[in-house]
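Re: the 113-residue chain
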Amino acid sequence: MRKIDTNKANYVGLDQRLSPRSDVYCRLPFVLPDGRQEMCTCVNISADGLLMRYERGLEPGDLVIFRMPIVGRITAKVIWSLGGKTGVQFDRMIGVEDYLPMIRAMGARGDLN
């Protein structure tokens, strides 16, 4: 899979994603660009990014580090942030062998084949 290059004009926006998203509701610790640790609520996730609720907002281009179940620390780039919701893209795709156990640990419901 290729990563979305948000620095190029061909980035198509919020509704065009490389990977399908799984709905979850999970509190996640993450590290802000200035090194402070905060908590967010992950709303949905894919192998290459997630949507989180974080009321203070972040700036596009910010780098944050999440502590995820199963996969551990993963760095992500903020793609957009608006109205307390923020979309990020992981610096590396989460492998299929870890993805399903991770989303189960995060509380995903429904068919997880």
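Helices lie at 96-105.
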